């Protein structure tokens, strides 16, 4: 054990001295290694950021895995009146906690500078969790909000800007214009995506239905509510079938019922950036190979001058194994240093505002930190290349005959 | 305990298209702790070959050789390397310092192959050793900035830094002028005496051979004891 520690530290020290002495030549071949490691790390890092972007935006629209949607209409296009009852029964029967109605409508809001139609989504409490909605200010709907007389609304930041960015603790209100005017309380603000330009808001579905005048054809103002469920992935398929059967059975033949899985994981298999990753990865691999060949070359050239030195070291107690390891460590130490440089460069590239903007395309509100696995991949590549490049000179070094090396 | 015991040791080399060449034949030799042995002989008589055997750099072709009572042919190559590192210190004619490394790094080199205190405290131990050979102010100097005598003093410090029981010097003054050679030999004698190590010196120079207490001559691979060195 004692011997292992001193052998390891000793080899690294020897290797470092060797790299230091041949620094110019080593530096040149290491530039290639650093560039390649940087490219590989950047690709892996960008891939992770891009995946996060895709995930975030698809979760916001499609929900988390596995999200089911249920859509029912009678053949004349209207919402079946029995639906609320059927929905409640289904949730109880299958013990589904995360479920929400989704009512899309347009609600006119009176701002200081005029009345504006605002895209409004009526939802139930679990919707916030189901779509991982994060608020800039305030909190998602709570049980108390359901009992409010003045309905609570969660507005996007554009809406909030148009209200004059009031402090939520002052209970700012918004005027909802309809057949009769309703005053709503703004209880939260969520970030608008960068491509959004219009105000938008969420309301609880019951509150939304209550303030919106009943019209004869509900399709005119309301889309018929759709229903969403967030269920464990492994039972999602059975549930799709069961819900389809139950609801269809309850509504009878003159209704059409569609139950689908709608989260991105349902139809996206594989990595959309795979081909980009493979291309950049292959180029980086090639650069890495060239850098490694440069290292091997330098090691072999300097080895000729070093045969004597190896003989001297052996005469002072260096074992063959130690010489092998020390020569191998030279390229490992060198490539790991280059690898660290490459990883740092990759972090700077991936985290630069320019690249973040390009990758996110306005879809990402929360940038993930630089992925650790990308840095690990880069360093592992550097170490493996160093070890492989060191193998050949190390094999040559152990074959040095000590008595010939120190004879002249 | 006998440090070294050689009995009927031979060393032959296999040549291509020629009969085997016998470099050393039937060598008998004992070296004890604290011995001062000098070996003289003409160029090509096999002195370096013998020294390589004594220093565990090479193996006898036949015969018995014990190092600290252990038969050397039974040692694995790793064990032989470690034993050499711990127990043997070499001083070469051409100094054989590592180029591009400072005096201190050169003296630290053998300690890199040690363990425990010697390994972890190598900078302090090597500094003390360089101070002992009078180079305490040249720790950071590279070999090509040192005179021949100074380089050999660095080499002496390096050979002694692990406290070996056997010091092997192959024409240690061969590359130095007479006066410098004398000072270097004084130093080797002193440090060897301090540490109680055995010293085997190969030399051309009768004056240097005369410093030893036992005198040997190698002639065409045959080792003979001589009573005194002819002046
Ligand atoms: N590996 C070898 N192959 C062939 N000849 C060798 C080898 N090693 C030594 N010799 C020969 O053996 C003789 C003794 O060499 P050496 O021990 O170096 O002599 P010295 O040190 O006394 O000058 C020389 O003639 C040398 O050429
Ligand atoms: Mg010789």
How are the secondary structure elements laid out?
The complex is a heterodimer of chains A (408) and B (231).
Chain A: H1 2-21, H2 23-62, E1 67-74, H3 83-93, E2 99-111, E3 114-123, H4 127-130, E4 137-138, H5 143-147, E5 152-156, H6 157-162, E6 173-177, E7 182-190, E8 200-204, H7 205-211, H8 218-221, E9 226-230, H9 233-251, E10 255-261, H10 264-267, H11 274-315, H12 320-350, H13 353-360, H14 372-398, H15 402-406
Parallel strand pairs in A: 3-8, 5-7
Antiparallel strand pairs in A: 1-9, 1-10, 2-3, 2-6, 2-9, 4-7, 5-8, 6-7
Helix pairs in contact in A: 1-12, 2-11, 2-12, 2-14, 3-9, 11-14, 12-14
Chain B: E1 2-13, E2 21-32, E3 36-40, H1 47-54, E4 62-67, E5 70-71, H2 77-87, E6 88-91, H3 103-112, H4 116-120, H5 122-132, H6 148-160, E7 166-170, H7 178-195, E8 198-202, H8 206-209, E9 214-219, E10 222-226
Parallel strand pairs in B: 3-8, 3-9, 6-7, 7-8
Antiparallel strand pairs in B: 1-2, 1-4, 4-5, 9-10
Helix pairs in contact in B: 3-5, 3-6, 5-6, 6-7
The structure holds adenosine-5'-diphosphate and magnesium ion.
The number of domains of chain A is 2
Q: How much β-strand is present in the residues of chain B? A: 25-35%
Question: What fraction, in percent, of the residue positions of chain B are helical?
Answer: 25-40%
Through-space gap between termini of chain B: 33 Å
Structural class of chain B: alpha/beta
Helix coverage percent of chain A:
55-70%
Overall morphology of chain B: globular
The percentage of residues in β strands of chain A lies in: 15-25%
CATH superfamily of chain B: P-loop containing nucleotide triphosphate hydrolases
What oligomeric state is this?
heterodimer
Q: Structural class of the helices, strands and pairings of chain A?
A: alpha+beta
Distinct ligand kinds = adenosine-5'-diphosphate, magnesium ion
Number of DSSP strands of chain B? 10
CATH class placement of chain B: Alpha Beta
The chain-level mean pLDDT of chain A equals: 83
Radius of gyration of chain B: 18 Å
Amino-to-carboxy terminus distance of chain A: 38 Å
Largest interface chains and counts? A-B, 27 and 32 residues
């Amino acid at each position: 054990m004692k011997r292992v520690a001193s052998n390891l530290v000793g080899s690294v020290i020897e290797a470092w001295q060797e790299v230091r002495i041949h620094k110019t030549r080593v530096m040149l071949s290491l530039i290639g290694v650093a560039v390649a490691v940087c490219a590989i790390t950047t690709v892996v890092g960008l891939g992770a950021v891009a995946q996060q972007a895709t995930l975030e935006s698809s979760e916001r629209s499609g929900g988390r895995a596995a999200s089911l949607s249920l859509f029912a209409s009678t053949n004349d296009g209207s919402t079946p009146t029995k639906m609320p009852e059927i929905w409640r029964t289904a949730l109880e029967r299958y013990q589904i906690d995360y479920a929400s109605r989704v009512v899309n409508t347009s609600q006119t809001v009176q701002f200081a500078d005029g009345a504006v139609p605002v895209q409004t989504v009526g939802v139930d409490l679990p919707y916030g969790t189901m779509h991982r909605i994060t608020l800039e200010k305030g909190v998602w709907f709570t049980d108390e909000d359901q009992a409010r007389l003045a309905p609570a609304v969660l507005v996007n930041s554009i809406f909030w800007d148009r209200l004059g960015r009031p402090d939520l603790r002052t209970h700012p209100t918004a005027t909802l214009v309809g057949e009769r005017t309703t005053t709503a309380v703004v209880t939260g603000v969520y970030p608008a995506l960068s491509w959004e330009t219009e105000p938008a808001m969420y309301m609880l579905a019951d509150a939304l239905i209550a303030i919106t005048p009943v019209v004869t054809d509900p399709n005119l103002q309301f889309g018929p509510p759709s229903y969403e469920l967030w269920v464990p992935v492994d039972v999602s398929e059975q549930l799709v079938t069961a819900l389809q059967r139950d609801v269809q059975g309850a509504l009878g033949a003159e209704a059409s019922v569609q139950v689908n899985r709608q989260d991105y994981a349902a139809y996206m298999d594989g990595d959309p950036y795979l081909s980009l990753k493979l291309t950049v990865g292959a180029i980086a691999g090639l650069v890495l190979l060239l850098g490694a060949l440069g290292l091997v070359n330098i090691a072999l050239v300097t080895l000729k001058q070093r045969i004597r030195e190896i003989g001297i070291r052996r005469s002072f107690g260096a074992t063959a194994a130690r010489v092998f390891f020390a020569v191998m460590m030279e390229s490992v130490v060198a490539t790991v240093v280059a690898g660290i440089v490459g990883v740092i460069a990759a972090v700077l590239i991936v985290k630069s505002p320019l690249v973040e903007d390009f990758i996110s395309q306005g879809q990402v509100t929360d940038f993930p930190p630089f992925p650790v696995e990308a840095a690990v991949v880069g360093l592992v590549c550097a170490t493996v290349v160093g070890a492989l490049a060191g193998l050949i000179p190390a094999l040559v070094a152990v074959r040095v005959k000590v008595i010939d090396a120190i004879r002249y | 305990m006998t440090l070294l015991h050689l009995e009927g040791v031979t060393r032959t080399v296999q040549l291509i298209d020629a009969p085997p060449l016998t470099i050393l034949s039937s060598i008998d030799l004992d070296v004890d702790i604290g011995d001062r042995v000098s070996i003289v002989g003409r160029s090509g008589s096999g002195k370096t070959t013998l020294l390589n055997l004594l220093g565990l750099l090479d193996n006898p072709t036949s015969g018995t050789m014990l190092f600290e009572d252990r038969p050397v042919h039974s040692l694995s190559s790793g064990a032989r390397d470690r034993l050499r590192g711990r127990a043997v210190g070499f001083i070469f004619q051409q100094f054989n310092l590592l180029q591009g490394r400072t005096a201190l790094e050169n003296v630290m080199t053998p300690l890199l192959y040690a363990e425990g205190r010697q390994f972890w405290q190598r900078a302090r131990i090597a500094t003390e050793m360089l101070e002992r050979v009078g180079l305490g102010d040249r720790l950071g100097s590279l070999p090509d900035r040192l005179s021949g005598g100074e380089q050999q003093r660095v080499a002496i410090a390096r050979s002694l830094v692990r406290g070996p029981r056997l010091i092997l010097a192959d024409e240690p003054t061969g590359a130095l002028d007479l006066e410098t050679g004398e000072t270097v030999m004084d130093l080797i004698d002193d440090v060897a005496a301090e540490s109680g190590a055995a010293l085997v010196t190969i030399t051309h120079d009768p004056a240097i051979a005369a410093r030893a207490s036992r005198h040997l001559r190698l002639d065409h691979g045959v080792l003979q004891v001589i009573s005194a060195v002819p002046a």
